[in-house]
Specification:
Blueprint lengths: L3 H7 L15 E3 H5 L3 H8 L6 H20 L11 E3 L19
Antiparallel strand pairs: 1-2
Length: 103
């Protein structure tokens, strides 16, 4: 399995394991909203012109999540909403996985 920290820094991306995201193919939505526009597009593998379409939708989901959390309606262990990262030539190394052995 590739060293995700090294791969991400080589691609000029932040560590893929931020917030509630525990695998490199997803991004924590709450964390993603804090990013500058250019980095946010790089993180998801989207073009800059899609940002105005994607960002409001993610904001809406995060707002609903935060509202539920404030009301105490989330189950224990229920984490932040996650966004799937697109597989592009730039982020392909983050999608490589190894074999998982479970005894």
């Amino acid at each position: 399995m590739p060293d995700l920290e090294k791969v991400a820094s080589g691609l000029d991306l932040a560590s893929p394991l931020q917030g509630e995201a525990r695998t490199p193919d997803v991004v924590d939505a709450v964390w993603w909203l804090t990013l500058p526009r250019r980095q946010a597009c790089l993180e998801l593998g989207i073009e800059d012109d899609l940002y105005p379409v994607v960002a409001p939708r993610i904001e809406e989901v995060v707002t609903l999540y935060e509202n539920r959390r404030a009301q105490g309606l989330l189950l224990p262990g229920e984490g932040h909403p996650l966004i799937g990262r697109r597989k592009t030539a730039r982020t392909a190394a983050l999608h490589q996985g190894g074999l998982v052995y479970r005894p």
